[in-house]
Amino acid sequence: DLSDSExxxxxxxxDSGSDSEEEEEEEGGGGGGGxxxxxxxxxxxxxxxxxxxxxxxxxxxxxxxHLGYDLDGRKIYKPIRSQDELxxxxxxxxxxxxxxxxHDKQTGSDITLSEEQVALVRRLQSGRxxxxxxxxxxxxxxxxxxDVMLHPVTNRPADKRSFIPSLIEKEKVSKLVHAIKMGWxxxxxxxxxxxxxxxxxxxxxxxxxxxRHKMHLPAPKIPLPGHQESYNPPPEFLxxxxxxxxxxxxxxxxxxxxxxxxxxxxLRSVPxxxxxxxxxxxxxxxxxxxxxxxxxxxNVDPEDLIPKLPKPRDLQPFPTxxxxxxxxxxxxxxxxxVSPTGQWLASGSDDGSVRFWEVCSSRCLKTVQVGGxxxxxxxxxxxxxxVLLLSxxxxxxxxVSASELLLSDKEGAEPVQGAESLVTWSEAEGExxxxxxxLKIQHPKAVHQVAWHAKGDYLASVMxxxxxxxxxxxxxxxxxxxxxxxxxxxxxxxxxxxxxLRPYFFVATQRSxxxxxxxxxxxxxxxxxxxxWISSMAVHPGGDHVxxxxxxxxxxxxxxxxxxKPYRMLRHHKKAVRGVAYHRFYPLFASASDDGSVxxxxxxVYNDLLQNPLIVPVKVLRGHAVSQDLGVLDVxxxxxxxxxxxxxxxxxxxxxx
Amino acid sequence: xxxxxxKKFERGSATNYITRNKAxxxxxxxxPDFRRLCxxxxxxxxxxxxxxxxxxxxxxxRTFYLLKDIRxxxxxxxxxxxxxxxVFVRKLRxxxxxxxxxxxxxxxxxxxxxxxxxxxxxxYPTFIDALRDIxxxxxxxxLFSTFARTGKCxxxxxxxxxxxxxxxxxxxxxxxxxxxxxxxIKGIYYQVEVMGQLITWLVPYQFAHDHPTxxxxxxxxxxxxxxxTLLGFVNFRLYHSLNLVYPPKLDGKAEAxxxxxxxxxxxxxxxxxxxxxxxxxxxxxxxxxxxxxEEAEVDQFPVEGEDMxxxxxREKEQKELEAQKRLFxxxxxxxxxxxxxxxxxxxxxxxxxEVSWDKSVCIGSTFDVTDETITHQIVDRxxxxxxxxxxxxxxxxxxxxxxxxxxxxxxxxxxxxxTLPPHLSPFVEEKEGDYIPPEKLKIMALKRGEKSAQEEEEEEEEEEEGEGEEEExxxxEDAExxxxEEEEDVAEEMNLKKMEKQRSQGKxxxxxxxxxxxxxxxxxxxxxxxxxxxxxxxxxxxxxxEKYLYDKIMFGKKRKIREANKLAAKRKAHDDAEKVxxxxxxxxx
Lengths: 657, 589
Known about the structure:
Chain A: It comes from Myripristis murdjan. Chain A: It is found in: Nucleus, Nucleolus; Nucleus, Nucleoplasm. The structure holds two protein chains of two kinds. By secondary structure, chain A is of the alpha+beta class. Chain A contains eleven helices and 32 strands. In chain A, helix 1 runs antiparallel to helix 2 (about 30-45). Among the domains of chain A are: about 205-290, no CATH class; about 315-410 and about 425-655, Methylamine Dehydrogenase, Chain H, CATH 2.130.10.10. The N and C termini of chain A lie far apart (about 130 Å). Mean pLDDT of chain A is about 80; it is low at about 1-50, about 375-385, about 395-400 and about 410-420. Chain A is about 20% helix and about 25% strand. By secondary structure, chain B is of the alpha/beta class. In chain B, about 55% of the residues lie in helices and about 5% in strands. Chain B has 22 helices and nine strands. In chain B, helix 19 packs across helix 20 (about 470-505). The longest helix of chain B is centred in the last third of the chain and has 45 residues, at about 545-590. Chain B is extended, with a radius of gyration of 36 Å.
C-alpha cells in the first residue's frame, strides 16, 4: 500500500517536472539533455534529474554563472533573468497563473503548476492523503486474536535445556551463597522502627540543664496582630488618602505597618494574602541568620526619675505673687536698686532718667533727668562715661544730711596723683544740684557697672574693653580719689563685686571669676564657670558662695570652700540669664532671664562645712512681657522682706511678694 | 622589661568568635550543609560587642559565630550523615552515567537517612520548652499542608504536615484549649493554652499559593523537617497526657456513624480514614474510657503573700474559663458550603457545639440541612432561598466574635445581608490611655450585663425618627427661645447705650458699691495646680542624664496619646459623616 501511495503522491510532481523541462528545453533549445532526463525519470523519481549537485544550499552557487552539473558533468548555466521589481509587479498583475507559479531553485526556472498538482497540494495542506482513491477506513485484518486456536502456531518440541538445571545459574547461586556466608552481602537494612516514628521523647526528663540551655536565647515570638490587621477593621484604622500616599512613598523598612489595612464586607470576599510565603520565609531567615542579643530594657517609672526635693511650702517665705507694678519709664529699665531701709527704690532706664519710687505705694517721687542711658543707679548713676552721685533726699533728714555731708566733704580730698589723668571728679552745680546730683566722676570710657563696697566709701566701676589695662577702677568717695587696681586685665571684665565682709574683690571676666585679696594684692582663686559668657554675678552675704548667670542660659553656684568648679549648674531658663541676686538674710536667690521669667530658688547654706548647700527652685515668677528679645533685665531683693523686684524691657518694674 | 611580646588578637574577644567561612572550613561542610546544620541545631550568629577587635582591626561586615557553638557542632553525628549523603549522591550519579540500573536500585534502597530525635531532645530538654517554641512549627506546618502537591517540596512532607496539623487540631478540640481566634487579612490566627503556655499560630486562607521566585524553598524545607519531627513528638506526648490513642483513632460510636456513608469516593481505606479525621467531626478514641476519669476537683491553696482579693480574682477567672469552654454547648450548627468549613468546624467543636455540613463538601457530615433541631446555620451569602423558621441564619463572623467576647453575642447584628460590626483583634490589650474602639467598649459593657450607652443612643435615635414631627416642633420651640435670647441681648445693649449717653452729657453716674461675688475657689483644683508646679520645679532640678531619659519617656507617652487622639478624631469624623448620610436617606424616604 505504502509504496503505491508514495508513487501516486509523487507521480503528479514528476509529470509537472517533465512538463516544465520540456518547455524549457523548447525555449533553451537543448535537445540532448532532454532524453537523458527522461531516462533518469524512470530510475529515480524523487530527485531533480538534471542537476547533480545534490541537496546542497543553492546559495553556494550564487557567485557562479552556473547552477550545477548535468549527468554528463557539463555546467548548467543560470537562465538569463532580467526581471526587476517592476517586472515582478507587472507579472503579478497580468499573469493569471501567477498564483500557481513556483520558482525552482535548482534549475532557476519558474514552474506553473497544473490543475492536478494544485489539487494535490490542497489535499496535503488539509492533512488528507495525497491519493484521491486511497481509502483510509479499510477494515483491518487481525492475524492474531485472543481466541485460543485449535492448532498451535508452531509445533516445535521443547528443548532439552529446559529440563536440565542450568550450570551457569548454579555457579551464580553458589557465588552468592558463598558471598553471603563470607558476609560480603548483607541483608537489606531494616529501619529501626521498633518504637514507632514518634514516641515519648521526654519520658525521662532529666533536670540536668546544660550550660548551653542557660545561655540559650529563645527567639522572640512574632508580634500579635492588632485591630488594623482585621479583615473588617473599625473604620478609624483604615488609611485615608494622605496616609495611603505616605505609606506608598515610604521605604518598606520605614513603614509602620507592612500592609495596608483593608475592609471586606464578608468573609467570602477575602482574597489570599499575596506575601504569606514571603513572610514565613523572612521569619525563617530571622530565626537562623539574626544575631540574638539580650537587651536590657530600661523600665523606669518616669516619676522615679524626678528628684525628691523638700516641698516649697516648707521652705517659705518666698515671693509668690506679683503685687505691684511700677510704671513710668518709657525705655528699658536696665537696673534697679533698693535703699537699705527698703522704703525706696531707684531705677535707671534707657530713656535717660532715674526715678525714685516709694516701694509700698508704687508712686514715683522723683525723676532725675540725667541724659543718656542709665546703667546703674545706686544712689548714684553712671551714664555713658560719667558716674553721677545723687542724693535723693528722700530718707530721714538726719540720714540725708549725713550723706550730704559726706558727699560735700572736701577736706578729705587730697591732691590727686596718678589717677588724675584717668578720671575727673567734679561737683554738681546749679540746676543739677537741685535735682540731686552731687558728684560727677568722668571716666574715659563707657561705664557698664558700678559696685559699692559694704562700708559705702568705696565704689568700683567697670569699663569693659578688650585687652585694656584700664577696665576696673576703684573710687574712694570721701577722699575723691580713684585708682586702677590692676596692671593688666585678662579678658573682658563683665562684673565686679566686693566681698561683703573681708577685703576681697571679685572680678568676673568672660569665662571665669577671679578673686583678689586687696590687702595682699594678689589673686587667691580663679573660678571656672563652665559657661560661654558670664552675664552677672552675685556674692552670698556670707561671702563663701558666688552665683554667676551666663548668656548661655545657665546659672552656676560656686562653693568657694569646695572647689573652683561650680557646685551646681542650674539650667532653669530657656534664654540668657541677665541678672542674679541673693537675699540679704533669707536663704533665697533669684535669677532673671530673657524668657520673661524670674526664678526664685531656695539656697540654704549650712554653717558646718560638711554639709553642702541645699538648692531648691521654689517659684517661677512671670509677668514681664518680652520685647525685642529682651525679657527681665535686672532683679534685686528687698533688704528685709522676702520680696523681689524685677525690671524688664517692657518699661515696668514689678514687685513680687 | 622581660617577657614575651604580646601579640594582638590572640586573647580576649577575638578568640571567642569565629567567622562563618572559617567555621564552615573547620566543619568541612559546604555552605548549604552548614546552613542546614545551623537550622537544625538552632545555632545563630552573635554580634560581638567590639566588632573591630573581633574582626582583627577590620570593619568589614562579617557574620560571627561563637567558637563554642561551632565546637559543639563538631561532635554532631548528623554531620557524618551529611557526608554519607554526599557520597551517596556521587555514587548514584556515577551509576546513572554507566547505566548500571541494578546498582542504581541498590543504592536507592540504601539511601542514607537521618533522624532528628536526639536534636529535638537536646534543643528542648523539657516538654515545656518544646511547647514554648512550637508557634513557628505550627505556622510552618499549616502553611506546608496547604501547598499544592506540585514539586515545590516532597509530597510526603506535605502529607506529613497535613497529618500532624490534623492531629494537633483534634487534640485542641478534645482538650478544649482554644482561647482566641482572629480573622485577619493574612489568614486566621488561633491562640490556644496548652499546659499553661499560650500558643498562637496563623493559618492561611484556603487558596492556591502563587509561589514567589525569591524564596529559597530549601531553607523552608529544612525548617519543616525539624518542625514536623518536633510537632510529632509533641503530639504524641499531648495525646498521651489525655489518655488518647496515638496515632489518633475515632472512637467506636463516631466511627460506626461514619461507616454508614459510602466510601466509594476514596481509593484507599487509609486515605478515607485520614480524611475522616481531618473532617474534625468525631471524637477520638481513648485508652481509658472517658466516663471514668472525670477531672478531680482542684483544691485551692492560698499562696503566701497573696491576699484574698487576688485569690478571688483568680477563682473568678477560673470560673470564666470554664464557662468559656462550654460556650457553644447545646448548639447544633450547620455550615453552608461557602464558609471555611475546617476553621468553623474546629472552633465550634472546640467549644462544644455539634457541627455538620453538606455531604458533598466533605466526608463526615452527621446531620442534614433539613434537620429540624438545627439552631444556627452559618451562611455567607446575601440571602438564603429556603429558610427554616426555627433556626438563625448568621454570618461566620458571629462565631469568631463570640469566642473572643467569651459570651454568645446577640445574633441580630450578624443576620444575612446586615452590615457586619467591625471584627476586633482579641490580642490587643488596651492599657490606660490607649485608644479603645467603641465596639470593644460595647462588648465589654455587654459582658458586664449593661446596655451600652451607644446602643441606648441608637434607640433614642430610632425613637426620634419615629417621632419626627414632634422633633420639628421642638425645633420650632428652640428657635423661639433663641429669639427670646436675642431680645434680651438687645435690651442689654440699650441699657449700656443709655449709660454712655448719660456720661457724655456730663451727668455723674450714681456711684454705687456693688457687693462683689465670692470667687468660688476649688480647693481640689488648687491643690492639683500646686502639685503640678511642684513637679515642674522638681523637673528643673533633674540631672542632665536623667532629664534626657525622662524627656524620652515623656515623648513616647505623648506620641501614644497623640496617636490615640488621632484615631478618636478619625472615628468621630466617620461617625458624623455616617449620621448625616443616614439623615439624608431618611429625608429622601
